[in-house]
Automatic annotation (TrEMBL), chains A, B:
<dbReference type="InterPro" id="IPR046373">
    <property type="entry name" value="Acyl-CoA_Oxase/DH_mid-dom_sf"/>
</dbReference>
<dbReference type="Pfam" id="PF12806">
    <property type="entry name" value="Acyl-CoA_dh_C"/>
</dbReference>
<dbReference type="InterPro" id="IPR006091">
    <property type="entry name" value="Acyl-CoA_Oxase/DH_mid-dom"/>
</dbReference>
<keyword id="KW-0285">Flavoprotein</keyword>
<keyword id="KW-0560">Oxidoreductase</keyword>
<protein>
    <submittedName>
        <fullName>Acyl-CoA dehydrogenase</fullName>
    </submittedName>
</protein>
<dbReference type="InterPro" id="IPR036250">
    <property type="entry name" value="AcylCo_DH-like_C"/>
</dbReference>
<feature type="domain" description="Acetyl-CoA dehydrogenase-like C-terminal">
    <location>
        <begin position="465"/>
        <end position="587"/>
    </location>
</feature>
<dbReference type="Pfam" id="PF00441">
    <property type="entry name" value="Acyl-CoA_dh_1"/>
</dbReference>
<dbReference type="InterPro" id="IPR009075">
    <property type="entry name" value="AcylCo_DH/oxidase_C"/>
</dbReference>
<dbReference type="InterPro" id="IPR025878">
    <property type="entry name" value="Acyl-CoA_dh-like_C_dom"/>
</dbReference>
<keyword id="KW-0274">FAD</keyword>
<comment type="similarity">
    <text>Belongs to the acyl-CoA dehydrogenase family.</text>
</comment>
<dbReference type="Pfam" id="PF02771">
    <property type="entry name" value="Acyl-CoA_dh_N"/>
</dbReference>
<dbReference type="InterPro" id="IPR013786">
    <property type="entry name" value="AcylCoA_DH/ox_N"/>
</dbReference>
<dbReference type="InterPro" id="IPR037069">
    <property type="entry name" value="AcylCoA_DH/ox_N_sf"/>
</dbReference>
<feature type="domain" description="Acyl-CoA dehydrogenase/oxidase N-terminal">
    <location>
        <begin position="80"/>
        <end position="157"/>
    </location>
</feature>
Amino acid sequence: MSDYRYPYQEGVFVLNQLVGLEQICHQAGLDEFAEGLAEAVLDEASKLGSEQLAPLNVTGDRLGATIENNNVIETPGFSNAYQQFCDSGWPSLAGNPEFGGQGLPNVLAVAVNEIWQSANLAWSLCPLLTQGAIEAIETHGNDQLKQHYLPKLISGEWTGTMNLTEPDAGTDLAALKSKAVPEGDHYRISGQKIFITWGDHQMTDNIVHLVLARLPDAPAGVKGISLFVVPKYLLDEQGNPTAQRNDAYAVSLEHKLGIHGSPTCVMSFGDNGGAIGYLVGKENQGLACMFTMMNDARQGVGLQGLAISERAYQHALAYAKERIQGTLRDGSRISIIQHPDVRRMLLQMKSSIQAMRALVYVARAESDYVNNAADETAQLKHQKRNDLLTPIVKGWVTELSQELTYLAVQIHGGMGFIEETGVAQYYRDARILTIYEGTTGIQALDLIGRKTLVDGGVAVSDLLSEMRDDLGAISAPELQDIVTATQAAVEHAEDAKQWVLAQAAQDASAAGSASVSYMMLMGYLCGGWLLTKSAAIAQRDLANEGADLEFLNAKIISARFFAEQMLPRVGALLAAMQSGGDTIMAMSEAQF
Amino acid sequence: MSDYRYPYQEGVFVLNQLVGLEQICHQAGLDEFAEGLAEAVLDEASKLGSEQLAPLNVTGDRLGATIENNNVIETPGFSNAYQQFCDSGWPSLAGNPEFGGQGLPNVLAVAVNEIWQSANLAWSLCPLLTQGAIEAIETHGNDQLKQHYLPKLISGEWTGTMNLTEPDAGTDLAALKSKAVPEGDHYRISGQKIFITWGDHQMTDNIVHLVLARLPDAPAGVKGISLFVVPKYLLDEQGNPTAQRNDAYAVSLEHKLGIHGSPTCVMSFGDNGGAIGYLVGKENQGLACMFTMMNDARQGVGLQGLAISERAYQHALAYAKERIQGTLRDGSRISIIQHPDVRRMLLQMKSSIQAMRALVYVARAESDYVNNAADETAQLKHQKRNDLLTPIVKGWVTELSQELTYLAVQIHGGMGFIEETGVAQYYRDARILTIYEGTTGIQALDLIGRKTLVDGGVAVSDLLSEMRDDLGAISAPELQDIVTATQAAVEHAEDAKQWVLAQAAQDASAAGSASVSYMMLMGYLCGGWLLTKSAAIAQRDLANEGADLEFLNAKIISARFFAEQMLPRVGALLAAMQSGGDTIMAMSEAQF
């Protein structure tokens, strides 16, 4: 059994020193909350996470969910935890006050969400998906949809789902076949959806399915997809739920490698005449609505990569301190944390997790800066940065989480392979993160295509400029080795961008071949940049009266480790990218 | 369900072109077998693997083994497959003819073992462990032990186990507590052993446990360990088994992340007065005997890394050819193998697997060259090479197998996470490979310490010289890009060696901190070297009449891919190494 504690000091450092929470609160007219807000909120959330959710993590893995007569029964204990979660007002933290939300910054919510996800990844998927549904309805829904659905979703009284994938339409949404036939003020939806996370459960009175489907006269491909709200129980005219069950059912559950506590449903719509659905946004504009849901969920999944790595780190660290193996020359026995290679693994986890957290929080704060921007220029600037960072957060953080959960198992030696130890669960659970909400390959294509080629590299150039400025401003001689290494990585990224603009623009297979290397390169760079900034802040604060020297020095060591051990990967990724796609495309299908 | 086929053409290429099977057969006085030997043997083994063992792989995963009254019942079907395996004479393939073996080269056995391990990793652990027991008894046992045990172990009539680990003595064997008390011609063994692979089963009449224990007056630490043979059923004076059960029992089975078909036992010796055991080698010399077992098993586990990667590749390749996602501009649908990033993942698997196979077979052939050496100088040379390559085979191949089985899941997208798809099993099964028979960290310490520092880098220098000669001899202009990249990697390795000799010699924490990077660097280098040699052979053979151009060109493409995409990692690993251990050691335990 591992205890989980939110790394409070780390989180507060990122929020206050890197993200600018005070500025965000000020812009949002929340000055009165700024002082001590984060600390108080994180403290409360940490209690719920550690005491209620974390112990249920293993239960979810062992018992999973079950299905009987098309009703999914969630893991025992999950419903009770969900009620406590709602009773304390957590779902509405960053919700729109117009619909009952508390209107606190998104970046504060992301820190709080880290707690739920570290504590219990499978359980936390339910509120995560609900958030995607909220975003879609809030951004694209008409007033009636907003009035009927948002208050209940924001309060957590109802949960939401995202119904995109079909057996022959996964990444390729153009191929989806579910149908929506107009009927008065609504539509009749039919079709089968797979991989629907928390598609059914008994924790709430209603579930709001967001469903992609195709109108009878819709154009082929992604231009003919529309998005619908399909509630599990129909509402009356006042928006109150009735006892009338909609024609939308979970018909089976998947048997998965991990996240057993999260019911992954096959959903069947319209087996008995058609499920009643309400259009979100305009007909055939479903893709844009879907991206609203998806972009939010993508950053959310990046956060999961951070959260599960943190949980795995805490587990591995506790073991490394307690497990005795080896003897010093004087005959005294030592714990494995004293072995250099174990320290290397722990530091790889610790420094990478700090880099991930910095990037995830900084990226999420961009949405707050967008919401509170003083003018359109500022808004556009932050929107572009948000869009640029999203595929890096999803792609890089989740890929790195594979390596880190792997190391957590490795630190345990043979015990890591035994399920009762518990660390293997993080390794299994993490495996979905590079797949759902768009695979790593899809994130990488998004980054190299829509986020780099389409704007001629401007957003990337802006980011690199900011990095150069930040690094150039660091004068502490103690940190020059770290600064120099990070500056070298910036220039590698400059070369990467130039290569993308010159080569990938004309050659789709070069772009496709290089895309994942490009995305990983940008991820390590962002991590290195934010850790170097953190080290500079820590170095500056060392002189403060009452400074926590242990903590600040550890931040500098982490940044140095990352620069020494992780940033060299940037050069290797650049070389791989620059090889282009010729070799990759040269092999015929038969030659594989 | 995936079908498995041994990659026959690849295997034969490595055996005939890289390993020098003909020369090995000639040296061993097996000229009459050389012509067509490998082909015929592999053909037969492939049938048994594909038809009998491969279908039982999923059964082992789902049903596992069970335990009742201290008797382990293996997965249904495993025993029948084992009987067929023995009836066809497979266990004795490379066995010593003095004890009923067929005396064929070890390198041929390694190719055959690849088949068993690809087909069914969990099942194949039983013969793998038996091989370790054979080596220990053959090298260190007295004549009576050899006469009593070797014929039955070599024929497969009995199986063997390795009983090393105890709850407080994993990597740290110095801490082991099991006792052996002399009693006439034998010893009474008592103690508990954990993680005992195939510690009990019903497939054979007897099981021969090799057990490390400590004599009453033994020195402390590893100098006080002795090795014993402890049969499940005692033998009479002629060496025939009796019905008398020895006091050695499996008392429980572990619940593991993978290899469910392989029973991992807690073994209890001496609960009823002491198990009867027979000394192997001399008292207190057990560590040397253990290393004899272990070195053999380490190369065997490296082979498992190759084998499971090959199986995962075949699964992913079949899916990539058959899964339709995406549409060309002309409206035609395409399978995902046409997407550049999917091709990248497949080529990463394919080229890495070729590199692994080349290294594993080449390393194993060294033991044949040792056995058949014309003089002591030649023998010593090959023994040194064998010793140098062993930690690279175990460490690098198994680490790389993690990445490759990961990619196999990734290629399947969401389906990869569903257990019924089958590919997740390879990912779970592979996870043990970097842990058992010495973790990656232990392999790396062996390489940097015993295999580099202890001989002043001579064995490494010899290997690098051979690489330089091989690469310098490649004149084909078509391959110069690959040759240049590989030569650069050789010089990086030269720098790495120099760094190890200069820095790590004086500073144990620098050695420990850099060791895994050093081992991985050497692995990629060996892979690149052997693939470049393969490309040169393929290029030469393109002009042969009747040459298989598709196959030979594919080998060149694989080598180029490896040089372009994988070899850049060598530079990154060198940089990580050269950072040394100061940062890694700087963090106090409390700061983690």
